[in-house]
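Colleagues,

For the teaching module next term, I've prepared a clean inverse folding example: a structure given as tokens, and then the sequence designed for it. I'd like students to try predicting residues themselves before seeing the answer, so please don't circulate the second half yet.
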């Protein structure tokens, strides 16, 4: 059950998406794989259909329990995929692959802080 209001989740997703211009997509996914909130950055084209994204999010919930990464749909050459695991949800983020490791780590640290209440 989602105990968070939609405006709160929307605010979190928007804040994460605005961390860096290279951010492409952010989703908050519940433990069953349902998308609670998601945004694709303006002027970015999704590499998947909505049906593929929903399946991907369901699979991400399964992936969480195994702590493995799911790479089939997007592939590492097109985007960087990052998963974070707050207590009762999963944060899935894609960003442009050319960011340095240090920049990615900085973004991850900020996302952890932003999503700590989830």
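(Answer key — instructors only)
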């Amino acid at each position: 059950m989602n105990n968070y209001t939609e405006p709160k989740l929307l605010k979190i997703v928007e804040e994460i998406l605005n961390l860096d211009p290279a951010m492409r997509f952010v989703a908050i996914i519940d433990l069953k794989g349902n998308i609670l909130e998601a945004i694709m950055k303006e002027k970015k084209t999704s590499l998947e259909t909505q049906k593929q994204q929903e399946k991907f999010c369901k699979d991400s919930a399964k992936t969480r329990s195994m702590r493995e990464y799911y790479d089939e749909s997007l592939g590492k050459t097109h985007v960087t995929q990052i998963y974070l695991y707050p207590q009762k949800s999963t944060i899935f983020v894609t960003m442009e692959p050319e960011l340095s490791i240090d920049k990615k780590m900085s973004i991850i640290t900020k996302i952890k802080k932003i999503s700590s209440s989830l």
